């Protein structure tokens, strides 16, 4: 496997795409992942410029985020593209399905099935519109897909208003886009979601879709205030998190973050992914130093494993970026410093993350996360 990552800060969508395409033209990629900031406003000119300049048709997958990650670091404006080349050893196939908000399960299933058509996938990448119930996306990837799925929810610049997904030459909304990879792919997946819990556990009494209304006889907002000692503020959005406790499988940890500080009805809270009534939860509060240490630990773990990477894809919660501020750069630089200063890399701050946990016995089922750092390393 070989890889090359290129970036642009060009404000014009067509010219930005053309810069990325020119940067990858001589590399002749077999597959491209492209992530951009929301400022291009879903203009199809970004992809038109890319393919016009690249001069070739290759499978392309990606979407928008609250910034992007590249080999050069973290950025708030522009786009990144990473080209992948397996010397013909791998087969790549991308697909899309629309109507995600109305039918999350069916749309997700369709995108993955179409991407896998005629292949025996080793790994999937999946990017989805955040304006859907991610728990219903999780049902499909957790219960039906037996190989790892890595990805996340596309987003915008913290306005929680819009996002776009990329598949081939198309710019989409309300969609799931998927890449299936078939062949002898070497990879490692690491998940950083070790934010410590505080206070007592509680049982979800009333919940509906992505809204949680009552916990331990209190409104969801009052329960958090009881456990943290302070009311929820707008600045807590995406940062204050619930960990969902699985008594039957304690090694599997899922985090769910708050979308907004307070819903209209009686202190209910809307989350990026739902939690079913009857589940036990605990409040988590992240600290910047803990997030940085988490990335360092993942990098150390990969070095100790002896894995030799050719490329990295990062999908990291936008809430981590909001909390880290300028130190969000560490989510890239710590990785490069420990593993390879010239590591080709691409990714984005997301509104929800997808990936399995690394366990002693292998990988867990595919899960949806919040406030989580998902790292996919593709091997040489």
UniProtKB/TrEMBL annotation:
Coiled-coil regions, chain positions: none
Cited InterPro entries: FIST_C, FIST_domain_N
Highest taxon of source: Bacteria
Domain FIST: 28-219
Domain FIST C-domain span(s) in chain numbering: 220-357
A Pfam family: FIST
PANTHER family from the UniProt entry: BLR0328 PROTEIN (PTHR40252:SF2)
Protein name: Small ligand-binding sensory domain FIST
Taxonomic lineage of the native organism: Bacteria, Pseudomonadati, Pseudomonadota, Gammaproteobacteria, Pseudomonadales
């Amino acid at each position: 496997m070989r890889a090359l990552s290129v970036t642009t800060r060009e404000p014009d969508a067509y010219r930005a795409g053309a810069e990325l395409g020119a940067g990858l033209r001589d590399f002749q990629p077999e597959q491209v992942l492209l992530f951009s900031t929301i400022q291009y406003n879903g203009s199809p000119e970004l992809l038109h410029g890319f393919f016009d300049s690249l001069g070739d048709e290759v499978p392309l997958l990606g979407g928008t985020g609250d910034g992007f990650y590249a080999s050069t670091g973290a950025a708030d404006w522009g786009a990144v593209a990473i080209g992948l080349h397996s010397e013909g050893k791998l087969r790549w196939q991308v697909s899309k399905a629309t109507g995600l908000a109305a039918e999350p399960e069916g749309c997700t299933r369709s995108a993955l099935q179409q991407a896998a058509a005629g292949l025996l996938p080793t790994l999937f990448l999946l990017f989805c519109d955040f304006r859907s119930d991610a728990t219903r996306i999780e049902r499909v990837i957790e219960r039906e897909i037996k190989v790892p799925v890595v990805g996340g929810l596309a987003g915008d610049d913290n306005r929680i208003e819009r996002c776009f997904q990329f598949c081939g030459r198309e710019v989409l909304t309300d969609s799931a886009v998927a890449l299936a990879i078939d062949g002898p792919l070497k990879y490692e997946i690491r998940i950083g979601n070790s934010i410590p819990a505080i206070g007592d556990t509680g049982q979800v009494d009333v919940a509906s879709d992505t809204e949680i209304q009552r916990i331990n006889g209190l409104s969801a907002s009052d329960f958090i205030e009881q456990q943290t000692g302070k009311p929820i503020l707008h600045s807590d959005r995406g940062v204050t998190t619930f960990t969902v406790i699985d008594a039957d499988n304690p090694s599997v940890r899922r985090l769910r973050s708050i979308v907004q500080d307070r819903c209209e009805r009686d202190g209910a809270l809307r989350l990026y992914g739902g939690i079913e009534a009857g589940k036990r939860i605990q409040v988590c509060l992240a600290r910047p130093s803990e997030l940085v240490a988490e990335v360092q630990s993942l990098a150390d773990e990969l070095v100790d494993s002896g894995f030799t990477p050719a490329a990295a894809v990062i999908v990291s919660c936008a809430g981590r970026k909001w909390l880290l501020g300028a130190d969000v750069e560490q989510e890239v630089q710590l990785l490069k410093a420990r593993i390879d200063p010239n590591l080709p890399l691409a990714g984005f701050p997301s509104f929800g993350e997808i990936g399995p946990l690394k366990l002693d016995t292998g990988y867990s089922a595919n899960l949806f996360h919040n406030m989580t750092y998902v790292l996919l390393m593709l091997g040489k």
